[in-house]
What we know:
Layout (H helix, E strand, L loop, with lengths): L1 E5 L6 E5 L6 E3 L6 E3 L38 H24 L5 H23 L9 H28 L10 H23 L3 H22 L21 H5 L1
Antiparallel strand pairs: 1-2, 3-4
Helix pairs in contact: 1-5, 2-3, 2-5, 3-4, 4-5
Amino acid sequence: MAIQVTCPGCLARFTVSDKYAGKKGPCPKCKKEIVVPDKSEEVVIHAPEPEGPKDSKGVSVLKPIKREELKVSGLQIGIAAGIAVLSIGLAIGIRFATESPPVVLLALGAAALSFPLAWVGYRFLRDDELGGYMGNELYVRVAACAAVFSVTWGLYWFLAYYFGNDTLATVSGLFFALLLVVMIAVGTVGSLLSLELEFAQSLLHYVLYLGATLLLAILCGVELAEPLSSGESKPKPGQIDLDQIYR
Length: 247
């Protein structure tokens, strides 16, 4: 059986036959005289004994847990890209088809996009070294996270009107920024609790959804706040548009 030898002079490593154990000889590289270690000097490293209950033969009764990596396939990337292109096309189509998209349509769009965006974000942000949720548990947790994501837009609508705005287009830039902070906080907490990502990952997870839906809302022509409005003044309910009278 071969003996592993390390030269103390040049640190070269090589093997010699065990018949030279305990004998001296020159290093094949630096020619310095070295002593071949004896077999009794070898250090044997044993694998740690498995912990947990064992049967009568000393074999562990517990099966080892195998970590499965969350890999993103080409098909999944293609589906995500297809959903993105379809969503942008629909948003542009709605902009030219209607003067102002119905609130119900916007709510349905925010809810419909929440699950695929939450799922895609989780697949990309999850740390493979820590493992990840799989199967039905993954779908349930993503669905819970998606529900929180879609509710944040309902929260935006509620707070905008609760604090005296007649339309979303009248929301000031400062108040719009404050509402976005509230939405990001709620969405981040939802991602933290449902999918147990790190804080930074949860923050990016929700920002991905917020950015995508905000972009689609702008493409649809939705005036969510004064900075995003067209600047055209629209009469309030019950008021008369004088321009219509004198045309």
